[in-house]
Write a structure and sequence with these properties.
The protein is mainly α. About 65% of the residues lie in helices and about 0% in strands. The protein is globular, with a radius of gyration of 20 Å.
C-alpha cells in the first residue's frame, strides 16, 4: 500500500502509520472537494500525521475566545459580548494559522480557491438568511448589537474564519478518517450545535430550537464546502449569516416572540436541513466509487 501511495500520480503523502489512510485519500479528497493536480502531492508535517492530535489542538484553540471573554467581562460592563471576545478571537485566528502552517493541512482543510460555479449553490441560503434578518426587524426580537458596524464586521469575520477552520476544516477532516462522509458531517454538526446552546437562563424550548437551527445550518455549511470545493465561500456565508442575525437583533424566542418570528426561524431551519441534505446526496451520487486497496 505504501509503494502504491508514493507512486500514485495524485496522492496525499502522509508516511508513517497514516500511509494506509493516504491510499484512500484520493476518493475522500474528491468527496471533500479538495482538488490536487495530477503532478502534485500534499505533504504534511510530522504533526500533521496525527489527525486526532491536530483536532484536539484545534478544539483547545477554539476555547480561547471564551476564556478571554470571561477574563475581560464583569457584571457592570456595558460592552457587548463580541466586544469582550475580540482579543481572544484575534489570538485564536493567529494560532489557527500557525496550526495550518505547522501541519501542512492548508489544502486538506479546504483553503483553496473555489471551483467554478460555486456561487450558484449559495444564492438560496443567502436569500433565506437575509429574509430572516428582515423578519427579525419586523418581529422585534431584540435590539441590534451595540458595537459600531466596522467593529462588528471585523469581529464577525474573525468568528466565521475561526469556527469554519476548526469545525469544517480540522475536525471534519479528522473525523473523516474513521467515519463515512455523512457520519463525519453529522458528528461535527452536532458538536457545533451543542457549543451554540445559548446563554444560561434560556428555556428548554429556546435551547432546543437553537440547537436544531444551528445543526441545520452546520449541515448546510458542510454541503456548501462540498459544492464549492473550498472553505472560503463557507466562511463568507457564515459571516453573512452572523452579520444579518446580529445586525437584526439576534434571535430571542423568550422575549415574547411573535408567531412571525417562529415561522421565519422554522422555515429557515427547514430550508437549511432540506437543502443541505439534498446537496450532500447530490455530491455523493456524482462522486466516483473507489474501493479501498487491500493491505
Amino acid at each position: 500500500c505504501r509503494d502504491r501511495l508514493l507512486d500514485a500520480p495524485t496522492s496525499v503523502r502522509l508516511g508513517g502509520r497514516f500511509a494506509e489512510w493516504g491510499c484512500r485519500t484520493d476518493a475522500r479528497l474528491a468527496l471533500m472537494g479538495v482538488s490536487i493536480a495530477s503532478d502534485q502531492t500534499v505533504t504534511v508535517s510530522r504533526l500533521g500525521r496525527h489527525p486526532w492530535l491536530v483536532a484536539l489542538i484545534a478544539i483547545v484553540i477554539q476555547l480561547v475566545p471564551t476564556l478571554v471573554y470571561f477574563a475581560r467581562a464583569d457584571g457592570e460592563s456595558q460592552r457587548s459580548v463580541l466586544a469582550d471576545m475580540w482579543p481572544g478571537l484575534v489570538i485564536a485566528a493567529v494560532l489557527l494559522i500557525v496550526l495550518v502552517l505547522a501541519t501542512g493541512w492548508a489544502r486538506l482543510v479546504g483553503l483553496v480557491p473555489p471551483r467554478a460555479g460555486w456561487w450558484k449553490w449559495s444564492v438560496l441560503p443567502v436569500v433565506c438568511v437575509t429574509v430572516l434578518a428582515v423578519v427579525g426587524r419586523v418581529a422585534g426580537w431584540s435590539e441590534s448589537d451595540s458595537m459600531p458596524l466596522v467593529g462588528l464586521v471585523a469581529v464577525l469575520l474573525l468568528v466565521a474564519f475561526n469556527e469554519e477552520l476548526v469545525f469544517r476544516g480540522f475536525l471534519l477532516r479528522s473525523f473523516r478518517i474513521r467515519l463515512s462522509l455523512v457520519g463525519a458531517i453529522v458528528a461535527v454538526s452536532v458538536l457545533f450545535a451543542l457549543l451554540h446552546t445559548g446563554t444560561p437562563g434560556e428555556s428548554a424550548v429556546s435551547i432546543g430550537v437553537t440547537v436544531a437551527a444551528v445543526f441545520s445550518l452546520a449541515l448546510l455549511q458542510a454541503a456548501l464546502l462540498l459544492a464549492g470545493g473550498s472553505l472560503i465561500p463557507v466562511i463568507v456565508f457564515h459571516f453573512w449569516w452572523d452579520l444579518m442575525i446580529f445586525s437584526g437583533g439576534g434571535i430571542d424566542l423568550d422575549a415574547d416572540a411573535t408567531p412571525l418570528a417562529w415561522v421565519a426561524l422554522i422555515a429557515t431551519t427547514t430550508m437549511s436541513l432540506g437543502y443541505g441534505s439534498y446537496m450532500l446526496w447530490r455530491t455523493q451520487s456524482q462522486s466516483p466509487t473507489t474501493t479501498t486497496p487491500a493491505h
